[in-house]
Amino acid sequence: MKVQNSIRLFALLMSGFISACGSSSTTTSSTPTTAITGSSFANHVNGASVVVKNASGTTVAGPVTTGSDGSYSINIPTESLSGDLIFESSGGTFTDEATGTTATAGTLSAHISGGSLSTGGAVHVTPSTTIVQKLVAAGKTRTEAETIFNTAF
User: Fold this and answer.
1) Alpha carbon distance 111, 134 (integer Å)
2) 70-98 tens-digit pLDDT
3) What is the mean pLDDT of residues 127-131?
4) Rounded to an integer, what distance in angstroms lies between the CA atom of residue 25 and that of residue 27?
5) N or C: which end of the chain has fewer CB within 10 A?
6) Given a cut of 60, is residue 24 above it in pLDDT?
7) Among 151, 115, 105, 149, which Cα is nearest to 129's?
8) Which H or E element spans position 88?
9) What is d(CA 74, CA 36) in angstroms, rounded to the nearest whole number?
10) DSSP letter assigned to residue 82
11) Rounded to whole angstroms, how far apart are CA atoms 6 and 153?
């Protein structure tokens, strides 16, 4: 039963799976920012929109658009780094690894604990980080979510 439920959870989360990361952003305000980079691990997603939200769901940075290699750079207000953050990537296109056809990406996300990012940090949004983020959003602590994920997979 545990394996069957784990497979269902994995299948559900993977259905919204393919998203990415993006190009650089320029901040015009005088608020100090910290540049964070990242990528999409599953495949290069070109043209995805990446935003960073705080724990309340308010967008604090972005959107920026992923490059053709799935990479992005985003400037986050330094004051936002002390709280938990959600990196979210949606849309864009990628080449399906199984069929070789161009497909539209879904949404990937990553939960980042407050105080864990600094200048030069990187956040890579993957199917695994999406599963952990969804578990945290459902009420699990980050540690509980990672333990559940590691036990299931």
Assistant:
1) 9
2) 999 999 999 999 999 999 999 999 888 89
3) 92
4) 7
5) N
6) no
7) 149
8) strand 85-90
9) 5
10) G
11) 8
Contacts of 36 (CB under 8 A, 6+ apart): 52, 73, 74, 75, 76, 117, 121, 122, 123
The pLDDT tens digits for 32-44 are 999 988 876 567 8
Q: For the chain, percent helix, then strand, then coil, each to nearest 5? A: 25, 30, 40
111/99 Cα distance (integer angstroms):
31
Alpha-carbon gap, residue 75 to 61, rounded angstroms: 7
Distance separating alpha carbons of residues 116 and 97, to the nearest angstrom: 33
Q: Which tokens is 6 given?
A: 């784990």
